[in-house]
Amino acid sequence: MLFQLSRVEIMGILHLKWASSGSSMVVFHKERASASCRRVRHGVIVATGPATEAPLKVNQPLTKYDLINYFASGCKPKDEWRIGTEHEKFGFEFETLRPIKYKQIAALLNGIAARFEWEKLMEGDNIIGLKKASPSSFIILFIYKINNAFIGRGNRSISLEPGGQFELSGTPFKTLHQTCDELNSHLYQAKTVGEEMGIGFLGLGFQPKWKPQDIPRVPKVRYNIMQNYFNNNGLPQVEALLMTCSVQVNLDYSSEADMIKKMRTGLTLQPLAAAMFANSPFSGGIPSGYLSIRSYKVNQVDKRRTGMLPFVFDDTFGFEQYVDYALDVPMMFVYRENKYIDCGGMSFRDFMAGKLPAIPGQVPTLSDWENHLTTIFPEVRLKRYMEMRGADGGTSDMLCALPAFWVGLLYDEVSLHNALDMIVHWTPEERQNLRNMVPMTGLRTPFQGRLLRHVAEDVLQWAKDGLDRRGLNESSFLDPLKDVVGTGLTPADRLLDMFHNTWENSVDPVFRERCY
Fold first, then answer.
1. Sign of CA dihedral 212, 85, 124, 150
2. DSSP per residue over 3-57, as a string?
3. Element (H or E) spanning 458, and its range?
């Protein structure tokens, strides 16, 4: 069955509503006080998942309204909201603790593919990932087509980050039980093959022992282009690319108004999540001075494509304003005929006018737009779903706690409004100062006359209440966070205590302590 969006505008707010239909859907254009709609042919939309790999030709150039409609097409009714969890981890040799080389990574991917029936993803002769069709009972499939450009998501995948970090991009599931089961199944498969090769996986937010020159590079042209781009902007940006691991959850929205509420809440409370999940206190084999050096390093990356997005809190914010922001973020590459073309620093606006110097006369597809969005790294990233991106990678129970926290807070109307009521008077300076301080001081960060830990107590209770109201017995996934907030000790605090009092000032035992 296909679905159709219907348009209702009440008091200046655009409301998007789904209804069953035939073979097309209505997509909206909103410009200031007026809005219009047009009908487009159908194609494919699937809930939360990885980006499209290759663009297709279009019959006519994209317009700004097409880009706005891209985000509007992500609107889903609440009973179709899903939970997509992604997490990264470091592979290392048991014997030497060194990062695994690409040759070992390739053997690992081939082993998982052979034993557990994954399909290989290749770039030339190099294996660069795996994918597997999601169970059909868990996929919500929609049809969408615009200018002959098909966009589909729904497979789970294993991919490689630039420094060989091993990433699972999970299936969009309905419950936390499902997403956590998938995560544990993935860890079982990776460990089963890895242990036979003398390879372990480390659940930390930052490479604790080795330096950038020790990190093997993944042979992906896309990453070569990205690294060259970041090399021009200093070492912290390269370290953020090669030496960090995070966990994120991808969540849905029902309308533009719902997206705005979730974006504002997610951005404001992302530093609180970073504090609770802080799990990267080491760098170069010693304490770094930070509880989350990953969070600190990410905060140093190109300010045009990272950060807290102050414009989200403007009264005029909506899909159109996010499009304007993304259009102004410099491009990194385009993908044509199975090749990545370096477009570092060039303008997507020029691309839309057919004036991209690297490929003059060509205009973008929606796949180009989607690929461009993957090179933007704010604390909350908007696609046709929303990515909560502020947390360090960690132990398996913490990986499950991250989606539980955000689902309880953002998927429950009461909890979401409690959070909005709390943050409504926070100033831009307070939000940014919190973001700047949390990597070093975590839950001990002073905020509005109390510690951030005490703010976390309230927010965590709202998250639990939200999960309880879902009625799916999911609140136990928050238990690790109850311990963190109750004691005020983050995972990083506990690691530092062991470093000084048990490990005799050696970082090597962390590979055992945080090995999955």
1. negative
2. EEEEEEEETTEEEEEEEEESSEEEEEEEETTEEEEEEEE---EESS-PPPSS---
3. helix 452-470
- Cα atoms found within 13 Å of the Cα of residue 67, Cβ hemisphere only: 27
Over residues 329-344, the pLDDT tens digits come to: 999 999 998 899 999 7
**How many degrees, rounded to 5, is the angle at CA 249 between CA 494 and CA 428?**
80
Contact predicate 384/74, CB 8 Å? yes
Does the pLDDT value for residue 12 go beyond 80? no
Cα–Cα dist 186/504, whole Å: 34
- Please give the single-letter amino acid code of residue 469: R
Contact present, 41 and 27 (Cβ < 8 Å): no
Environment class of 62 (CB within 10 Å of its CB; exposed 0-12, middle 13-18, buried 19+)? buried
Element spanning 368, H or E: helix 366-373
Q: For the chain, what percentages of helix, strand and coil (3-state, to nearest 5) are there?
A: 40, 25, 35
Contact 365, 43 (CB under 8 A): no
Rounded Cα distance, 296 and 492, in Å: 14
What is the helix (H) or strand (E) element at residue 391, kind and residue range?
A: strand 386-392
To 5 degrees, how large is the angle CA 438–CA 279–CA 470?
85
pLDDT at 391 over 90: yes
**Matching residue, tokens 């100033």:** 427
Q: Indicate whether this model's pTM tops 0.90.
A: no
**How do residues 127-170 score in pLDDT, each as one tens digit?**
999 999 865 433 333 323 323 222 234 579 999 999 999 999 99
Measured CA to CA, the distance from residue 324 to residue 314 in angstroms comes to 14
- How far is residue 407's CA from residue 48's CA, in Å, rounded to a whole number? 14
Q: What is the CA radius of gyration of the chain?
A: 22
What is the structure's pLDDT at 232? 75
Structure token digits, residue 242 = 């090669």
Q: Which among 32, 25, 33 is positioned nearest to 6, based on CA atoms?
A: 25
Sign of CA dihedral 482, 486, 488, 492: negative
